[in-house]
Structures are given as C-alpha cells and as structure tokens.
Amino acid sequence: MIRVTRLDGAPILLNCDLVQWVEETPDTVVVLTTGERVLVRESADEVARRALDFKRAVAAGPVARAVGEPEAAEC
Description:
two-stranded antiparallel ribbon; alpha+beta; globular
C-alpha cells in the first residue's frame, strides 16, 4: 500500500498492485485494474517512486537491516 493524497487533501492508502496506469491530464489520474479512477495531488513520477519503494521494501523482507547496520552473527 502506498500513501497518496486526493485532490481535496484527504490522505488514502492505495494498493499499488491494482494500479494499471498513471497519467497526468494535468491532474494525476491513477487508473486501477478494477476500472476505478483516483485523482491525486502527487505527480505520476512520485506515485511510481512510492510504488517502487514499497515493492523494494516487500522484497527485502520483514527483517531488512538498515544501511550500515552490522549483520547478525550466525548461531
């Protein structure tokens, strides 16, 4: 899920797995696979960046370590 902001200022969480495409017309329109369209304040590039960051976090797993954090010792 990624946090985006509707045009009226209301924050929402959007399931980025349902995003079919994003277009700027000039408002940013997120079109979902369900056919629903969501108008958001963020740019198309920002929506894409947030979706990519979310996917990377999921791929890293729940115990992803911070950059510079020492690796755990093996038992």
